[in-house]
Amino acid sequence: MSRKLNKLNALAVKNSPAGKYSDGGGLWLHKRGDGGAQWVLRVTVHGRRREMGLGALATVSLKEAREAADRYRAMVRENIDPIKERERMKRESLRNLHFLKDIALDAFESRKASLREDGKAGRWFSPLAIHVLPKLGNMPVSDIDQKDIRDVLLPIWHDKAETASKALNRLSICLKHAAALGLDVDLQATEKARALLGRQRHKAQNMRLFIILCKLPLLLQVIFQTMIKMYRKPIHG
């Protein structure tokens, strides 16, 4: 491993033709003939030479590549294989990543006992399964905000008002369940989404229809009494 560091500069990185260029300390820039380029770090761990990719030049700058190389060289000095350590950290990160679909299932399981026939009919879970999880199920629950919820429920907010309200309610329960598990979630996200979505038109229309139906017996009674009075009137020839 060369002792001299920071051999390259931004201009050389940008304008150098295809080839392999050392920045020192085991950090190399591999430039291909098709214009692509990749950062590679060469290290020796436990007497074994290893190469690890640090990302493409298009997404990782010279400064970022040097910082990453410094971190991994520090691991080597501690006799830690940086490639295995990076893989371990990635696996650990995935284990700690809680997706909404997993939280929703766990929340459902915790409530099955209070649902009719343990929720086998699917009424509790179906608003989530049909309208929410297809789009948000693979998102980490801690990343979900009111805009995500608004966007997924907007297509049914007015046309399927009751279903949309149930989906929003179930989603609120899921977020509370995630918070109880110790996850960092926005418990106000559903209420914020409700504010963004606005009032449901069909809900108001249904209420007006309900009022009309409630008054219908009285209206029919008035009509019936009027007809009786008409038929009771004497007919003068």
TrEMBL record:
From which domain of life does this come? Bacteria
Q: Which GO terms describe its biological process?
A: DNA integration
GO MF terms on file? Answer: DNA binding
Where in the numbering of this chain does the Integrase DNA-binding domain appear?
A: 10-88
In terms of SUPFAM superfamilies, this protein maps to: DNA breaking-rejoining enzymes
Residues annotated as domain Phage integrase central:
101-183
Ranges that cross the membrane: 209-228
Q: Does the keyword Transmembrane apply?
A: yes
Which UniProt keywords are given for this protein, alphabetically ordered?
A: DNA integration, DNA-binding, Membrane, Transmembrane, Transmembrane helix
Q: Which InterPro entries match?
A: DNA_brk_join_enz, Integrase_DNA-bd_sf, Integrase_DNA_bind_dom, Integrase_recombinase_N, Phage_int_M, Phage_Integrase
UniProt record similarity statement: Belongs to the 'phage' integrase family.
Name the record gives this protein: DUF4102 domain-containing protein
Q: Give the source species.
A: Paenochrobactrum gallinarii
